[in-house]
Known about the structure:
The structure is a homodimer. By secondary structure, chain A is an alpha+beta fold.
Amino acid sequence: MTRYWEDFTVGESFDLGSLTVDGDEMLAFARRFDPQPFHVDEELAKETPFGGLIASGWFTASLFMRLYVDAVLADSTSQGSPGLSELRWLSPVRAGDVLDGRLTVLESTPSRTKPTRGTVVLRGELTRAGQPVLSTTFRGLFGRRPR
Amino acid sequence: MTRYWEDFTVGESFDLGSLTVDGDEMLAFARRFDPQPFHVDEELAKETPFGGLIASGWFTASLFMRLYVDAVLADSTSQGSPGLSELRWLSPVRAGDVLDGRLTVLESTPSRTKPTRGTVVLRGELTRAGQPVLSTTFRGLFGRRPR
Lengths: 147, 147
């Protein structure tokens, strides 16, 4: 059933499912977008405060996005996002980590200028064995239910 | 010459260079991480407010990261980032767009707990023909110059 703006209820929380971090993909992403030693060079990474290879934060954020799309946006009236007001990388992510996603609706506001659209403020989280590794607060734009 | 925490001066601005958005890569990224219709389906995208395919915001942010790594972090004492306090997607990005990157140092603070580390608050921007398409304010951790 298509999810419209009206279907987001403040305080509602979604289990986004889980995923396992693929080491090869993690490395390929970093080589292309974030080639810092602790993301791309196993030997040099050992000499850094991280003690080994860790995921680019943008890779971790992108993995969160995929969980969010599959669980919530796939069948929705999503019209994208103007941005986010916070994104925190709380713990290094490594190959093989199992991450669980969660989404909570913080605010919901009809558009003042577009009667066919509304905004929701969402809190997204990734955890590993209950320990938070990523959190973010962002806005999502959604089409309203036709009347 | 390696860039230490001390080498970031508040108010200093860096030209990060420019890039052209590759349509195939933009699509492959969206298929994997952000498969919403306006990112992955050319026909369906025409029916959305965007009028055609646009980049996932995470792809655009990752492109910014690559410019930042190449221009500033590659030869630095970067120790990663705890997160960002703002990320705005200001205008849809499309295949073939030429994006210019810029970085400005907003704040610089020595660590209170780790004498070998300091934090900088940075403002990053991507523009297309002078028009802003992405802006972000984030923290970077850097090792201090040995004394």
